[in-house]
Amino acid sequence: MINHLKNAFFISLFFVFLTISGFSQTVQNSIRGTVSDSNGAAVAGAKVKVRNKNSGSEQQTVTDGQGGFEITNLPNGVFAVNVEAPGFSNTTREVSLDNNSVENLEIGLSVGNISESVSVTATRTQIATTDTAVPVSVVDREQIERQTPATIGDVFRDLPGTSTVNEGSFQVRPRIRGLDSNRVLVLVDGERLNNARTSTSQSGIELGLVGTEQIETLEVTRGSGSVLYGTDALAGTVNIITKDAPRNADGGFRFGATFNGYYSSNDSGRRGSLALTGSGKFFSFRVAQSLERFDNYFSGDLNGVAIDGVDSDGEVQNSQSHGSNTQITTRFFLNDDNDLKLNYERRRAGNIGVPTLVGVFNAFFPFSDRDKFSGRFETRDLNDSLARVSASFYFQKQKRNFSNILDVPAFPPFFPGQFQFSETVTDTKSYGVDLQSNWLLGNGNFLTAGFSFFRDQNEDERFIERLDPDFSVFPPVLIRSEDRSKSVPNASYSSYAFFAQDEFEVNKRLKLIGGIRFDRFNSKSDPTEGFALPPDFTQVEIDTLGLNGLTDGLNVSQTAFTGDFGAVFKLTPDVSLTGRIGRSYRVPNLFERFFTDAGSVGDFVVGNPDLKPESGINVDLGVKFKTTKYAGSVTYFNNTYRNFLTSVLARYDNGDPIDLPNVGQVYQTRNIDRARIQGVEADFEYPIKLGLGFLTPGGNFTYLRGDNLGADEPLNTISPTKTVLNLRWQNLKSQYYFDWATRIVTKQERLSQSFLDTNGGPEPGFVTSDIRGGYNFAREHYRLSFNLGVTNLFDRFYREQFVFAPARGRSFVFGTTWEIF
């Protein structure tokens, strides 16, 4: 099957090349106009970008001394005309062109600093966030530099509808609308970072596998993303877009360089990166290398009292990490409409601790590595109907070592102690293909359609050394033993899918968006040496748990159909009403289907070949408003999920728990829960001109409510209310700024009784504040910026809700960028 898919990819690529020569574009439309301020005076030097909404191709120019501009040789289609100038809010106009037309525009700019955000994740094409039916947050490079995060996961603390899981400089992961891990799909440049081996209930893919300094934009789409991206996009989709190697079409070959530096006082965190770039008319490249080191971080003030895993001075034990990142990007421009991109990424992380896990039980990652090679060919504006065709592939290898040590002290002469060292090396190889086409089916009708395939191939290696007490003699002695068994067999997980999404502009006010997707999944395991059921399992237990054939190799196939429908209605030119209903799903991964071994949720966990996919019905209703003076949005969502996967105590047919003498109580992942998560998300910003700058109040608000419908009780891990308040001042030309932010998370008391009993009560709320400031000096071919900040300003001791390790205490952070281009 793999060879067939490879052949299909290269045949498709061959036809793409044929298409380049077979189609011709004869129409030549034009957009011209003038740009002025609110008093009618011409604005010279304003940057004008004209973007084809369907193909993604873009042209740009600057206004002349009279505020005039003109862009020619445009194909038929709908175009977004974006105008920006220092001291003014960005303005976007949308125009339709066909049959050699000329559009004349008169664009007025208002003093302000409201920005226009564009997303490629929400629709697989470039689109303004105000024109989408889904709630989406876009964090650009400037915002990342101003926030100076230790890891990109820290950004999720301040976005609407999101929070974080875990702590440290490597392991912070996003939680979206109360769900995390593999229920959130993480993409890198539109390609899957998630893999099928990662545990859902206990871990999830780490964003630390992507170097923070290599990120250009972070896009977070909340709600179902299954139609466009398939499995795992249950609660939301995160797309990490890395830095590119743009073309220089002005003639000649231009070289550039960028240095990024970062320092954090709390954990003596250091990170430095150097990138070299070159760009010409037909070829460009970017080569970047970074190094980083983070020591143990310190929590907020403990008043000199030590707690588990945290010293009296606040040092959080086992929270360190080291790493490096390499990125090589090349692009070949065959002509204005055809280019090939090749990319290589190498991430090395090591000595990664699990914060607070020290003492009798210690857990850590000696290494967590990622290598990825990818390529993409794209051709645009082929004819009046076919606006864009892209063909991409990637190969990715994720290899990590998870180790733990159990060291129980001796109590002579009756107990000699106990020791166990365990390491599991997971080696997951992933490869995928994506073919996408964008069609213009008449005026205002855009169709995105394509085919995608991915496959994860996993092999584990495990070694366990034990020193167990032998009580047959007195005094007892320790007996050494080794174990090379495996908890997951050698297995693969693959999917091929066809998808289509149509965007139809009924008129100037109403746009409809609908999509469908078909997926075929296959989970296959091989008979694997070391993977076996304990001998204590009788045929009765095997039959009761459905484990027949589990260790002999299994081949499980499943099919999923997905669809969604949405609408955007422009109530006024500045206000849009949005609505969407869609189906999401997540197919059980290799861990959930096959893991059979001692587990953290109980004495012993067994696999379950008969698991069904999790699925959801997601409804989003909202209003988005954006003027040159203020912007914001309000969204109500109601997501109902079926067949939630949960690890439960296994029972015989008569209801008695399965509890075996040498194994203990047996647990199994099963589809049992039905859940509903609903809530409200809102954000706003309102710049006020004061003297030589802008004072901008802003922020966001999130309210979540979760219900376990199967058990008729509250759903756990749902933070109820989060409020983020910002106050930013910056000068008219955005050269320097000062920012203050406060995050308020209320106490969560609405929890199941079993959780309250285990947790010792509700999850406490907290309030934390940050201040930042910086200076940005930019000229035509160079830029210099400095960003300073104090995080957790008042050194509060707190934990993110449903996270065991405490959060960082006060830290002075510094970031700088030196760029020549």
Protein traits:
mainly beta; 22-stranded antiparallel barrel; 6 helices; 45 strands
Tell me the number of helical segments per DSSP (H or I, 4 or more residues long): 6
Q: Rg to the nearest angstrom?
A: 28 Å
The separation of the N and C termini measures: 46 Å
How would a crystallographer describe the biggest sheet?
22 strands, antiparallel, barrel
Uncertain ranges: 7-25
The helix content, as a percent range, equals under 10%
Report the β-strand fraction as a percent range: over 45%
Shape: globular
Average of the residue pLDDT scores: 91
- Find the count of extended strands (DSSP E, 2+ residues): 45
Helix/sheet category: mainly beta
Report on the structure:
With 821 residues, the protein is mostly beta strands. It is 6% helix and 55% strand. It contains 6 helices and 45 strands. Strand 2 (47-52) and strand 3 (58-62) form a beta hairpin. The radius of gyration is 28 Å and the shape is globular. It starts with a helix and ends with a strand. The model is unreliable at 7-25 (pLDDT under 50).
Summarize the structure.
The protein is mainly β and 821 residues long. Mean pLDDT is 91; it is low at 7-25.
Draw up the topology in text.
Elements: H1 2-22, E1 29-37, E2 47-52, E3 58-62, E4 68-74, E5 77-84, E6 91-97, E7 102-109, E8 118-119, E9 127-128, E10 136-140, H2 141-147, E11 162-165, E12 173-176, E13 179-180, E14 184-188, E15 191-192, E16 215-222, H3 226-229, E17 236-242, E18 254-264, E19 269-279, E20 283-294, E21 321-335, E22 338-353, E23 361-380, E24 386-408, E25 418-440, E26 445-470, E27 477-483, E28 491-505, E29 510-525, H4 539-545, E30 555-572, E31 575-586, H5 590-594, E32 597-599, E33 602-606, E34 614-626, E35 631-649, E36 659-660, E37 664-685, E38 688-690, E39 693-708, E40 713-714, E41 721-731, E42 736-745, H6 753-759, E43 766-778, E44 782-791, E45 811-820
Parallel strand pairs: 1-7, 14-17, 33-37
Antiparallel strand pairs: 1-4, 2-3, 2-5, 5-6, 8-9, 10-16, 11-12, 12-13, 14-15, 16-17, 18-19, 18-45, 19-20, 20-21, 21-22, 22-23, 23-24, 24-25, 25-26, 26-27, 26-28, 28-29, 29-30, 30-31, 31-34, 32-33, 34-35, 35-37, 36-37, 37-39, 38-39, 39-40, 39-41, 41-42, 42-43, 43-44, 44-45
